[in-house]
Specification:
The protein has 3 helices and no strands. It is mainly alpha-helical. The protein has a domain of 48 residues. The chain starts with a helix and ends with a helix.
């Protein structure tokens, strides 16, 4: 078992040495423009509720709220990252 560990350690050392041991830094700049809020059609809620029924209407409402929540979360994250 110990011999296998030594061989594996040597193999890793050889790979590291052969890779040139160079560290390269890559600068990453995020796009600091917050995403636009989802464009939702103008819906008459009562008519939509009548057409879908209560259960499907609630499911659609949750989905729309999740879309808005995701857009708000992304905007807040970009504001935190892009502060001067």
């Amino acid at each position: 078992m110990k011999r296998t560990s030594v061989i594996a350690g040597l193999a890793l050392a050889v790979i590291f040495a052969a890779s040139g041991c160079a560290t390269e830094y890559v600068e990453i700049r995020p796009n600091c423009t917050p995403p636009a809020h989802p464009a939702l059609p103008s819906i008459v809620k009562g008519e939509l509720w009548d057409a879908l029924g209560d259960e499907q209407y609630r499911r659609l409402e949750r989905y729309i709220l999740q879309l808005w929540g995701y857009a708000d979360e992304q905007a807040a994250l970009l504001n935190a990252i892009c502060e001067p």
